[in-house]
Amino acid sequence: MPRAPSSPHTSQAHATDIEAQLALTDRHCLDHGLKLTSGRKAVLQALLRRGGTAKAYELLADLQSGGASVAPMAVYRSLDFLVAHDIVHKVASNSSFVYCQHAHHSHHEPSFLICERCGSATEWDAEGCHAVVAQALKATGFAVHGIEIQGVCAGCAHADKVTTPAARGSR
Question: What is the three-class DSSP state of 18?
Fold first, then answer.
């Protein structure tokens, strides 16, 4: 699988962060007897270049943008591997993938904040929240396996504040 293409918007600092995240993932894989193949690494790199959140078809398009032939199943298999080993999480409600911000420790109850406007999904470390929900549901016998909270992200809320006064003035 080809290397993820560079974005003209990738700053030097962002590129350094991506290299650090790839090195961390490489170390995680070595420590756990896993192989971060070139294909898996290219998919992860494409995800990181998108800020750590993307849908599979977006990653496929990024990888194919350099003219390389990349099969959709290769991207899905790579994502399956990354999810299975706590490197990436899958957000069920919007079918996106999110890079794990918690140094790939084995936590099985990720929580996500999902913006209804822009579709962004952010991993949220909410141990206390998860415990409260699990306790509240205990009597029902329902076991919680992750939390996805829908709302409006700070960027979209800020954009609303900026555009709302102008829209009111034009009425």
Answer: helix
Tell me the pLDDT tens digit for each residue of 88-141.
999 988 899 999 877 655 656 778 898 999 888 888 876 678 788 888 888 899
Say how many C-beta atoms besides its own lie within 10 A of residue 12's C-beta. 7
55, containing H or E segment: strand 53-55
- DSSP secondary structure code for residue 87 in this structure: S
Q: Contact, 96 vs 53, CB < 8 A?
A: yes
CB atoms within 10 A of CB 122: 18
Cα dist from 102 to 40, 70, 107, 110, whole Å? 19, 29, 9, 10
Q: What is the pTM of this model?
A: 0.76
